[in-house]
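Supplementary material to the annual report.
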Amino acid sequence: MLLSIIIFLPLLGVIAIALLRGMGPSAVKGIALFISLLTFLISIGLYTGFDANIEGFQTNELLRQKTTWIADLGISYHIGIDGISLWLVLLTTFLTPICIIAAWNSIEKGLSGFMMSLLALETGMLGVFCSLDLFLFFVFWESMLIPMYFLIGIWGGERRIYATIKFVLYTMAGSALMLVGILALYFQNDSSFDFVALTQNGPFDHSHLLFLAFFIAFAIKVPLFPFHTWLPDAHVEAPTVGSVILAGVLLKMGTYGIVRFCLPLFPEAAANATTWIIPLAVIGIIYGALVAMVQPDLKKLVAYSSVSHLGFVVLGLFSQSHIGIQGSVLQMINHGLSTGALFLLVGMIYERRHSRMIVDFGGLAKRMPIFATFFLIVTLSSIGLPGLNGFVGEYMILLGSFINAVNGTFSIWYVVFATTGVILAAVYMLWMFQRVMFGKLDSTNESLPDLNPREIVLLIPIIALIFWIGVYPNSFLKPMKMSVDEVVKKVDTTQNTPAVGQLEYIDNTVEPLQNNETDKPMLINEEEQSK
Amino acid sequence: MALNLIVILLISPFVGFLINGLFGKWLKGNEKLSGSIGALAVLVSLICSIIAFGSINSNPDNTLEGDAGVLYTWISGESFTFNIGFHVDALTSIMLLVITGVGFLIHVYSIGYMHGDEGYTRYFAYLNLFVFAMLILVLGNNYLLMFVGWEGVGLCSYLLIGFWYEKKTATDAGKKAFIVNRIGDFGFLLGMFTLFAAFGTLDFGSIFTEAEAGNYQQVFGVSTLVVATLLLFVGAIGKSAQIPLYVWLPDAMEGPTPVSALIHAATMVTAGVYMIARSAVLYELAHTGMVVAWIGVLTAFFAATIALKQNDIKRILAYSTVSQLGYMFVGVGVGAYASGVFHLVTHAFFKGLMFLTAGSVMHAMSNELDMRKMGGLKSKMPITHATFLVGALAIAGFPFLSGFWSKDEILHSAWGSSPFIYIIGLITAFLTAFYMFRLIFVTFYGNSRVESETASHLHESPSVMWLPLVILAVPSAFIGLLLGIGGHHSWFHEFTKKVFPEAHGEVAGNVVLFMVISSIVGLAGIAFAWIRYKNRVPAEESSNSVERLVENKYYIDEIYNTFIVQPIKSGSHFLLWKLFDTGIIDGIVNAVAAIVRWLGGTLRRLQTGVVQAYIVSMVIGIVIFLAFYLFVVG
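Predicted assembly:
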């Protein structure tokens, strides 16, 4: 029940705002904030009630619900979470109130419509992450589009119509393919859309085609190079909050879809597809970074940096290694926080200066020291500085990929090239930071006020998480471990047992354990041992 | 080693960082308090370091038993565990003393040097953060934690180089430092991955034990350790400013001078040397030391030649640092790990000292750095002159001063590995003595060329600044004698004996002979400088093309810019973004949309609204269906 309450509470807020029309703007904002905060507070219950030792989806009835919806068609209202979706649900409920506070003073026209869209979007997003029924999943997946369409199309910038239509059509093209895939699975799943049942079935006929149908839908959403050109347009035209949600949560729909559907349902096809997906991911990392470097527009820069960062996530997901996949899931959260924060910060100076062009700024550090501090921390998090969140995810992804590349799963050079992303991220982020924050203050920027308490309040929780994940990532990694195990198990069945010369993990008996948590494995060389 | 001690040692500068960082706004009015908090935080660490050193010194079994254990598990998953764990042995304890000792003095000096600066509290916050990161780097018991410190010091270096952020050259230099270091880190990361793939852990203890036993996964065949050590060395090249990644260090002089002394001379830049010394076991097994030594000696020579023709005193010191770091790499490269680290220690003192004296000169000269505009400063600034002279004599290898001992040990060991390295090293020693005394003669001797306005308030620095100079001058002069007498059986070698693998082969040749040769070379360099620059100021521009080449630092920065930076920038702009992204990919997307629209527009014409037209198409349809059933199906 708890999960349903979390999913539909925001929708209740939509109805409340709709019914109580004619109230003042502060009442609308108040309701929206109250509802979203309440949703967040309740969603913390998911974490406290989460049992990290359960394989697969949580079985606790608070966190799992299954009711028949359309019996004749095998459709049920089946929702639940595991260690992967848990974090994405929390990310969504965490970011939504922040978005509402961020939009506090910036929406002039149609405030109630804006808040309604935002809350409806939250329900859609939560539904996607919690659905355990393909039909239900698809309904939520499509329903997300509508509020997003309004958010960009009504409250967006000058070229908002072009951007909205591009965004919607791109996504729809993918969704259409996915719908075919869902139907094909339905007929191979005893005429049921139930996802849990589906994971027991399989392998499926035409799995390569089905994999492709799902994968393209998700790759567009990620967006994976070369399906990314909708993203810069959408980000540039979207209002700040739209960008935050888009970068923070919507892009994760793609990577979530891959780890939830593509990998476990079609492991063999996924394994085969690594030969072209990993190159695309690596190209995305480098290409996104290089193109980000030369952007004159702050929002476009951040948008292209997302292409680069999500390239890392896709690389990790297809590395077929436990470390890599776990790193990718963590990196989804990291990207949501860091890039979300970047868009918030860009929005804050946009509200002051009404420009997103880098050339219009310079020397802001002098006028806005608090802003500069926050901006620096988020920039460093995006660069992947150890001690902050981005490093942990990136490191795990690269390490996992490296190990499997050494095992011969794919060429080591992909990992080498992917690692150059570490250099390039520093290049484009620090160059941007220098041009915006350092140098002489322009006379037009002399009157820009530093952050106000509202803005500080909405940034602090994100900054706190950035440090938390950086310093103690285990509180995030532990709950997701079993769920990642599930995925890896599926993917691994297609892998043969390690041949001679490949890695094998055995219990370490040589080294004394340093603490009881350290089930530290040792790698040994089979050849060496046989001597 | 008690974990508590390590934690206090480590956390104290971090607390200082938090106080100055978070409450800087309120501390701003009280410079003394802000600076004292910063210095005190490091003093606590210094005291802890001395205790740690004492306990290791008294314990004869001072090797891996110094392990301080695990604070907590940082990242763990299915098949790996990375701990926040510390390790203190003889090598660590020496590094700790250098970092906190020199660090403390530089904090004290900064209290005076930064007086009146707008970012006073910010400065001390960064400086404390730096010490914290540097301590992590040397305390970590695994490569990952070392990397955390490694990146942390890089960040602080970035922040402090660009400390005066309104100055474009300063922020450019900071950015350059960070990015060039990241190129090195790229190698470090891949090196770590290789080690993890081979050993399944990144803990020093396990890796070294297993490597010696040959008990690891040969992920790259027999060359696994070769690959790993060379990749790690790429990291060292970046951090310790060796060819070809040295270009950031001279620019880093844009930062406040105490920062140059602490970060860009005494501590951070030596991290690469520390890393190789720490990984000595691996370099011994992989036999990659000679690569390290050659890069080191070439850098030493190359940087020394550039220093010959510079006129900015801080830049001369910067190239000198690059050059001296090269010596250290020769030391650790030829397997004389203790000698390399010994030079690291002596260099930290005398180079730190020289930077601080340069700061004292700048302080008096209203931030002037061009020595052609100085001259005759000796009489106005006697303490600064005397202390600088000590540093310069030490680096020049003047008999019995500290540089003499450590440099000679390195050269001596190099002779055993490769006479070529020895000879290049010896030539570099001559150049070093020459350029250092060129600096001294032009700056402190001869006639004053100081502008009259500056000259009127030319004065010795306040005691808070000159006192650290005097304190640093003492070890700069004598630490070599104290720790280094006895060559390969000196106290320093005995103390660090258990950390490093046995040096390969007995050191050849007569020790005293080598010392005499080194001394003669050093004195010759000083003499040449005296002949040439006793009464002469460097010319504005050389007529000789070779000299111009050197003056312009071989145009390396320009070459990098033209052949690497600019092509990447314009290629990304025109080819990737404009042509490929908006042109081709988005072109295709928009073309698809256009085709659909065109199709829609065309097909729309069928919807004419004229009933007759619909009947016609209906009839045609019926005919086609009938024909299909009659002729094809039927």
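Residues 306-501 of chain A form one domain.
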